[in-house]
Amino acid sequence: MQSYTEENYLKIIYHLAEKTTNVQTNAIAEQMQTKPASVTDMIKKLADKGLVDYVKYQGVTLTETGRNAAIDIVRKHRLWEVFLVDKLNFKWDEVHDVAEELEHIRSIELIERLDEFLGFPKADPHGDPIPDKNGRFAKTQFIKLIELKVGDTGTITGVSQHSSAFLKHLEKLGLTLGKKIKISDVTDFDGSVEIQLADKQVNISREVAKHILISSNGKN
Amino acid sequence: MQSYTEENYLKIIYHLAEKTTNVQTNAIAEQMQTKPASVTDMIKKLADKGLVDYVKYQGVTLTETGRNAAIDIVRKHRLWEVFLVDKLNFKWDEVHDVAEELEHIRSIELIERLDEFLGFPKADPHGDPIPDKNGRFAKTQFIKLIELKVGDTGTITGVSQHSSAFLKHLEKLGLTLGKKIKISDVTDFDGSVEIQLADKQVNISREVAKHILISSNGKN
DNA sequence: AAAAATTTTTAGATTTACCTAAAAATTTAA
DNA sequence: TTAAATTTTTAGGTAAATCTAAAAATTTTT
Ligand SMILES: [Mn+2]
Ligand SMILES: [Mn+2]
Ligand SMILES: [Mn+2]
Ligand SMILES: [Mn+2]
């Protein structure tokens, strides 16, 4: 059994490993909002417990056991987010912090029943896939909106930035999950993108476009 | 803001204070499953924080602030128990341990919305009253079943023992919350009680009868 | 009102998860 | 390929919540 802190480390290492091959001490420290020296201490402990492979100065990798533990936390986090949005009417920008706490509740039975109660959802309110009880989930095949060309169409199916400010901004623009879009223009000057929605046209900055994920209906 | 451990101490002190005027170090230690020496340490800390009044060797009392904090934990515990039973189909003997964890989740918004989602329940699955968001709840006026006389009638509205073994036993006998009962006999020899239910007659030991709470329809 | 039993507190350690400052290793730049 | 910059680790410490063993206070019994 892991402590809450150990669980948080495992989850963060897991998420970092999705982006970079080599998970570095400093990166973990930043995510954990702690100091590199503390990370080294914890990594040693996780290595002793067989949850990560660790070679001094060479970064860290999750073991099979460690990855399974991490995926379990991610599963819980995302199921709780669905609960908060679907059942308690939270907004998609309000759920993350509470889910950070709820993800540590230790009861297999609870999560199985919650999953069932929610109708075995496949994705959380941000479009992220929810692992099933065996830790399996479909590799999502999203394209960043920024990569689309003028004329391309698609559906918003995820975001790669979960800050409340960003999510509220999208909400205000009407760029929520499930919305069908078409790229009507890309400005050379600042890279901002003009998007055609069903009922209106909106303009988003390049920075925003980077963090919207699209399941493409096919390129133009 | 209190740590999980501090919250557990406050809750236990609150519950002990319901039974005895003077809450003793040893009693707290037993409930917390820890040693008296550790309790003394923690009591000092709680006293420093203004959550309890403490005089060496004279036991401990909750301050206004401490009691409010305790009641808030109790509220959360009981609301989560209702959620587990009403929404996730847990049995009344399965919810306590999970609620022990859930009660520490820190989000006022979460609890308000959960309360609403559950329909502002007044009692938890064991018949215990749920404080409202201002910490107010009706003082329950229950009588122990053991105190009833032959011919008395009433409704089962609570239990004063929450162990799984006890609750499962009641379940098997059909002695669940809301059931109407009539005392048909009390055995002199062992104090066991014969109870008339709507559809059947059951016999319970004196020990069991002590822990069933009745809202009396009036004595005979 | 002593003596005995019980309860509570103190003293001194331990463990977990941190920290700062300094040393060591690795990577990047000149 | 040295020198400089960056990253990572080690060394030594702190605070929270525990513990055991022993001392002190309180309560109960004789
Ligand atoms: Mn989240
Ligand atoms: Mn999410
Ligand atoms: Mn309970
Ligand atoms: Mn209860």
Brief sketch in words of this structure:
Helices cover 42% and strands 16% of the residues of chain A. Chain A is of the alpha+beta class and 220 residues long. The mean pLDDT of chain A is 95.
Secondary structure elements and pairings:
Two copies of one chain form a homodimer.
Chain A lengths: L3 H16 L5 H8 L3 H13 L3 E3 L5 E3 L1 H24 L8 H7 L5 H10 L25 E2 L8 E7 L4 H10 L6 E7 L6 E4 L4 E4 L1 H5 L1 E5 L4
Antiparallel strand pairs in A: 1-2, 3-8, 4-5, 4-8, 5-6, 6-7
Helix pairs in contact in A: 1-2, 1-4, 2-3, 4-5
Bound molecules: manganese (II) ion (4 copies).
One manganese (II) ion (MN) binds next to helix 4 and helix 5 of chain B.
The first copy, chain A, binds a DNA duplex (30 and 30 nucleotides) through helix 3.
Query: Reading side by side through the largest sheet of chain A, how are the strands ordered?
Result: 3-8-4-5-6-7
Number of strands of chain A: 8
Helix count of chain A, per DSSP? 8
Task: Name the CATH superfamily assignment of one domain in chain A.
Answer: Ferrous iron transport protein A (FeoA)
**What percent of residues of chain A adopt helix (DSSP H or I)?**
40-55%
- The low-confidence parts of chain A are none
Strand content of chain A: 15-25%
Structural class of chain A: alpha+beta
| Unique ligands | manganese (II) ion
Stated plainly, the CATH topology of one domain in chain A is called SH3 type barrels
Report how far the terminal alpha carbons of chain A are from each other: 51 Å
Identify the biggest protein-protein contact and residues per side: A-B, 18 and 18 residues
Query: In terms of quaternary structure, what is this?
Result: homodimer
Shape of chain A: globular
Query: Radius of gyration of chain A over alpha carbons?
Result: 19 Å
Query: Biggest sheet of chain A: strands, sense, closure?
Result: 6 strands, antiparallel
The topology string of helices and strands of chain A comes to HHHEEHHHEEHEEEHE
> What is the name of the CATH class of one domain in chain A?
Mainly Beta
Overall average pLDDT of chain A: 95
Main location (chains A, B): cytoplasm
InterPro entries (chains A, B): DtxR_MntR_Metal-Reg, Fe-transptr_FeoA-like, Fe_dep_repressor, Fe_dep_repressor_sf, FeoA_core_dom, HTH_DTXR, Iron_dep_repressor, Transcriptional_repressor_C
GO cellular component, one term (chains A, B): cytoplasm
Subcellular location (chains A, B): Cytoplasm
